[in-house]
Design brief:
By secondary structure, the chain is of the alpha+beta class. The protein has two domains: 10-185, Jelly Rolls (Sandwich), CATH 2.60.120; 193-301, Homeodomain-like (Arc Repressor Mutant, subunit A), CATH 1.10.10. It has eleven helices and eleven strands. The strands form two sheets. Strands 2-3-10-5-8-11 form a six-stranded antiparallel β-sheet. A hairpin with a 2-residue loop joins strand 2 (22-28) and strand 3. The longest helix has 19 residues, at 157-175. It starts with 9 loop residues before the first strand and ends with a helix. The model has no long low-confidence stretch (mean pLDDT 89). It comes from Epibacterium ulvae. Residues 194-292 form the HTH araC/xylS-type domain.
Length: 302
């Protein structure tokens, strides 16, 4: 994902049903199932899922952009497995009809039961990227039937537990036990100090609200700020500002972007405000900093 993030990042599954095109089929202790039918362009939607998610395209074409720079184009019958905590962007352009898709979110309770029944254990904390899957006929029919049968029913929770476990079993036969284990557990232990630090550093240069980061690290806002101060020895506002300004310094030293372009690159709406904060941190304006660095390099080469 190379384009700048939108300031409004959707947290899935909770905020997906804020959209009028999304309808919750089922929700319970074991996860949730949501159907979406999109009739208009839906461009550049940034989102993070707090649970492992499978999105299955019934009809239409939707493009997903991942943190690692991979573009995943999904068409009819394609499926994407999105691990928790992954910053993603989706893009749909209305061309050949509406987008129809079903999204399934798996709770930790269900994941634990699935791995227990499979006799699988997690030895280390995996990091997985989103995975596009070419769904076979069995998987396609299973997801479509789940939507068709249960969307208007009061469904027993034990029945949905069994259906979701069956879906995970189908996926594991399709993509392999080891891969599905990594996808299900990626990002799960964000509450530990080490994973808290990695999560924060991962999004250091993005415009992600503190409330979202608190949610991703499994903390209330008060405990998030307290742990942030303890781990980074700084307030969130100061630390994130310093990371952005350090990035600006690197761009001034190594790139050819103008000061205005650098300000935009690190998410400053005002170039003058960027210059003011850069000077406060480094003792000179960005332009002066670049000139001094260029002069130093020329002197060292002579």
């Amino acid at each position: 994902m190379t384009a700048s993030l939108n300031k409004d990042i959707k947290i899935l599954p909770d905020q997906l049903t804020d959209y009028s095109f999304a309808h919750q089929i089922w929700e319970g202790r074991y996860g949730s199932v949501i159907r979406k039918i999109v009739h208009d362009d839906l461009r550049n939607v940034d989102f993070i899922s707090t649970h492992p998610c499978v999105a299955h395209i019934i009809y239409g074409t939707e493009t997903f952009y991942s943190e690692n720079g991979e573009d995943l184009v999904l068409k009819d019958r394609d499926l994407i497995f999105v691990p928790r905590g992954q910053l993603m962007r989706s893009d749909f352009k209305m061309e050949d009809g509406p987008l129809r898709a079903v999204l399934v979110f798996f709770s930790d309770r269900l994941i634990d039961e699935f791995l227990d029944e499979a006799g699988t254990r997690i030895e280390t904390q995996p990091i997985a990227n989103p995975l596009k899957v070419d769904a076979n006929e069995h998987l396609t029919q299973f997801i479509k039937s789940t939507h068709a049968i249960y969307h208007d029913l009061q469904v027993d929770e034990q029945l949905m537990r069994n259906k979701l476990l069956e879906l995970l079993l189908l996926l594991s036969t399709l993509i392999g036990k080891e891969q599905i284990k990594e996808l299900l557990f990626s990002g799960r232990s964000a509450q530990s100090s080490g994973n808290f630090k990695r999560t924060i550093e991962r999004y250091a240069l993005e415009q992600i609200p503190l409330e979202t980061l608190a949610l991703l690290t499994g903390r209330s806002m008060s405990s998030f700020k307290r742990d942030f101060q303890r781990i980074f020895q700084s307030s969130p506002a100061k630390w994130f500002r310093e990371q952005r300004l350090n990035k600006a310094r690197d761009l001034l030293e190594t790139g050819s972007l103008s000061v205005t372009e650098i300000a935009l690159e690190i998410h400053y709406d005002s170039t003058s405000h960027f210059i003011e904060q850069f000077k406060a941190r480094f003792g000179c304006t960005p332009l002066r900093y670049r000139r001094d660095k260029s002069a130093e390099e020329a002197h060292s080469e002579s």
